[in-house]
Amino acid sequence: MQTPVDPTSTAAWAELTKLHGGFTPDLKGAFASDPERAARFTFDAADLHVDLSKNFLDDEVLAALVKLADEVNIPGLREAMFTGEHINVTEDRAVLHTALRLPMAEELTVDGQDVVADVHEVLDKIYAWAEQIRSGEWKGVTGKPITTVVNIGIGGSDLGPVMVYEALKPYKTGPDARFISNIDPNDCAEKVADLDPEQTLFIVASKTFTTLETLTNARMARDWLLGKLQESGAIDGSDEQAKAAIAKHFVAVSTALDKVEAFGIDPNNAFGFWNWVGGRYSVSSAVGTAVIVAIGKENWQDFLAGMHAMDLHFRETEAERNVPLLMGLLNVWYTNFFKAESHAVLPYAQYLHRFAAYLQQLTMESNGKSVRWDGTPVTTGTGEIFWGEPGTNGQHAFYQLIHQGTKLIPADFIAVANPAHATKDGEVDVHELFLSNFFAQTAALAFGKTADEVRAEGTAEHIVPARVFAGNKPTTSIMAPALTPAVVGQLIALYEHITFVQGIVWGIDSFDQWGVELGKQLAMKIAPAVQGDEEAKKQQDASTQALIDYYLAKREK
Ligand SMILES: O=P(O)(O)OC[C@H]1O[C@H](O)[C@H](O)[C@@H](O)[C@@H]1O
Questions:
Q1: Alpha-carbon dihedral of residues 500, 210, 520, 510, nearest 10 degrees?
Q2: Rounded to 5 degrees, what are φ and ψ at 478?
Q3: From CA 78, how far away is CA 325, in angstroms rounded?
Q4: How far apart (Å, rounded) are the C-alpha atoms in residues 375 and 396?
Q5: Which residues contact 409 (CB under 8 A, 6 or more apart)?
Q6: Nearest CA, atom 14, ligand 1
Q7: Alpha helix (H) ranges present in 473-533?
Q8: Catalytic residue (choose from 243, 396, 424, 525)
């Protein structure tokens, strides 16, 4: 892997610094002086129609950003990613989530392995198994079909599948899916409370199969299942019957099939993936099994095809029209030159209500780093804080701060032309009403409202300042014909590649997560103290000791 280029040492950075120095955001003026602006800065990527024109962008800035991409070698490193070079330096791994959606006819051999053949072998195994569940051919231990699958996983083994399941609810033709992630025992308790154990199947999803939360939840689920089945007399207390029940009610998804077996799940009931798939990039791997059960093979194939279409766009489209590249570079422009700290993602699609949560792991676990991939300190700010909620709910919660606060918050607005449920309220098409908000918000953020406009509405003079909107709040509008499986796939791949672009500019390894590993170790170290071990408690700082004391005094056991 090449030494990361210090972006601040490039000619493009110097140009951007100069451009920023002379840059007074004036979106109103920019549109007034250039009738072609909207058309010139709107690009199509697969089914996504992306309008960048309400950003702090002009031809010079665009040219300098594209030059920056070249100077930090995004084209070369993008190719290195797609061809399986070990660009995840600190873990010495290839980064090949794009291979998970390659059509069968493609060829890709990495580290001596035919990756495409491996991917499709697993996909075929999942499709065949999912079809058994969906058709009712697969029976639980008492002979009944499965009506609910419960995915047990956390982080990348949860956020992707739950987000896609929610996004594609209108495409659900199979069993329900639920998702247990938190080690808070209330999560598991609530999710299984109304389930019939005879018709429930658990999918234990964990890349490493060592994650404390997931293994604990899996054991709790196993105890619940066996306990309930014994209670009703469906099975006796013998090991043999417990084994038979687990074989029919538990499957696993992991890269560590040996650990799956040690847990007591038959490896024949496990779907594998590979260590070249990062957890937060794993939704298109076997980690999506719960979704495949719910929406079926054809819809999943459309989802993968959508991701692949975006992969191709990113790999092959010229820089000036390359949407993930431009969006990633714009994020760098805002983060490093305008000192924006956060980035809102605001889907005008209720089905995308978990999209921001999903993006938080994708972007922040990837790019929240302060050393570069060669171990040297970063030379710029990194890692935007991603957040968001669906519109219009967000409008009634936090948009006030975006419109009139003191912080610059670039925002991505997402909407589709056709809703899954076309509904009228009297004569009014409710989706049109919904979209009117989408259109109105980006316009208001860009162009604001002057004091004269406020006065013209008859506002009392002393209230005028409070009702003025400065405007010049940058937004990107992303539209698509409908929230199909392909479009959901494209949205995910779009943000994966945006994340990659930012990571390369900053010189960081966007595919490791050492910061999270520490938390895992610390919780294990402190557990004995929480269980009452005085010596272990004394190892803790005074604040932590006092908090543990409070807990020990208050707990009712
Ligand atoms: O899938 P698992 O191995 O159980 O890991 C689940 C999660 O664990 C940690 O939080 C990692 O930082 C995440 O990237 C990962 O998605």
A1: -10
A2: -115, 120
A3: 10
A4: 44
A5: 340, 342, 343, 344, 401, 402, 473
A6: 279
A7: 485-506, 514-530
A8: 396
Distance 211 CA to ligand 1 centre (A): 7
Q: How far is the CA of 34 from the centre of ligand 1 (A)?
A: 48
Structure-token pair, residue 387: 């957040």
Q: Annotated catalytic, 520?
A: yes
Q: How far is CA 217 from CA 195, 254, 469, in A?
A: 16, 16, 49
State the Cα–Cα distance between residues 325 and 505, nearest whole angstrom. 11
324 CB under 6 A from ligand 1?
A: no
What one-letter code names the amino acid at 38? A
Residues 376, 56: contact at Cβ < 8 Å?
Answer: no
Two tokens at 8?
Answer: 């601040």
* Tokens of residue 463, six digits: 């209230």
Dump pLDDT digits (tens) for 489-542.
999 999 999 999 999 999 999 999 999 888 778 888 899 999 999 999 999 999
Residue 273 token pair: 């993936």
ipTM for this prediction: 0.98
414, 482 contact by CB (below 8 A): no
Cβ contact 344:397 at 8 Å: no
Ligand 1 atom nearest the C-alpha of 153 is 4
Per-residue tokens: 109: 């051999």
**Residue 429 CB-half CA count within 13 A:** 9
The DSSP 8-state label assigned to residue 149 in this structure reads E
Is 396 among the catalytic positions?
Answer: yes
Q: Is the dihedral of CA 503, 509, 511, 517 positive or negative?
A: negative
- What phi and psi, each to the nearest 5 degrees, are found at residue 501? -60, -45
If one residue of 369, 513, 522 were mutated to test the ligand 1 pocket, choosing by the most ligand atoms within 8 A of its CB, it would be: 513
Q: Which of 41, 48, 53 is nearest to 320 (CA)?
A: 41
107 is catalytic: no
**Intervals of the chain under pLDDT 70:** none
Q: Which of 163, 364, 516 to mutate to test the pocket of ligand 1 (most atoms within 8 A of CB)?
A: 516
Q: Count of residues for the chain? A: 557
> Phi-psi bin for 454: left (phi > 0), alpha (psi -120 to 50), beta?
alpha
The model's pTM is 0.97
Element (H, E) at 428: strand 428-429
Residue-level pLDDT at 525: 86
Instruction: Tell whether ligand 1 has an atom less than 6 A from the beta carbon of residue 154.
Output: yes
Distance CA 154, CA 204 (A): 10
